[in-house]
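Lab meeting prep.
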Amino acid sequence: MSKKVKRNKLTKDQYMVAVEGSTEMPFSGAYNYEKRQGVYLCVCCDEKLFGSDSKFNSDTGWPSFHSTFKKGAVVEYIDESHGMIRKEARCGSCDAHLGHVFDDGPKPTGLRYCINSVVLNFNPD
C-alpha cells in the first residue's frame, strides 16, 4: 500500500492499518467514544485530519466524522476489495490508509468518514 509511511515509526497494529489497509475491530479503538474538543492527527505524519466539531456517534464502532479538517487533508480512492465498491480514505500528506467514506452521514455534508482509531492521534484543546 503506502510507500511514504515508514514502518519503524509505527506499532504493529498501526502498520497493519496504515500500510496494509487492515481494519481494527469495531468498538475497540481509543477514540470511538472520545468527546473532548480538539484535533485528530495522522499517526504517521501529524497532519491535521479532523476536528472534534465534525465528530459524531455513528454507532458503527469506529470514530466517525462528517467533514475533514481542511480541503486535501484526506483524499479518497475507489476500493474494490472484498467484493465491494467503497471509497477509501487516505491521509492527503503521507498516503496512510485511514478507513472509508460513506454517503450516510449527517448534515452538512451527508458523509461519514469511518476512521480507525489506531491511525489517529488526538490533541485536545
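Slide two material, second protein:
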Amino acid sequence: MSRSATAKWQGSGKEGTGHLSAQSGVLKDLMYSYKTRFEDEPGTNPEELIAAAHAGCFSMKLSFVLGESGFTPDQIETKCEITLAAGAITKSHLIVNAKVPGIDKDKFDECAKNAKENCPVSKILNTEISMEATLN
C-alpha cells in the first residue's frame, strides 16, 4: 500500500504561500504559509497535520491492541500536541481519554503503551528520510 500527498510552494519562505493536496482528495489545495505555521493566522501547517496523523493512527492502533486483549472500546479520544522548537519537531505528546468496558487501569496502561510504541506514525517520527529532488 502506498499513499501520497503533494505540496506546492511559491515565493520566499516568509512571504510565500503553499498548497497541500492529498491523494484521497480530502485535502485539495489547502493553503499554508509562514503565518499559519509560525504565527496565529488561521490555516493549517505541517505540524498540525502530523498531530492529526499521530492522534488518528494511535487511536486506531489502541483499538486493535485492546481487541487483541479481549476488549472493545466504547470510545477513544486522542489529542496530539506537536512541539516545534529550534527548527525541529522535538516532541509529540498524546493525551488519551478512553471508555473501555471491563478493563482495569493496569491492563489499559499496558495496551496504551503498546499502541504508543507500535502505531506506524510513532515509528516514523524518528526514522530515515529519503528524497528524490528535481529542479525544473
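Talking points for slide two:
The CA atoms of residues 57 and 120 lie 7 Å apart.
The mean pLDDT is 92.
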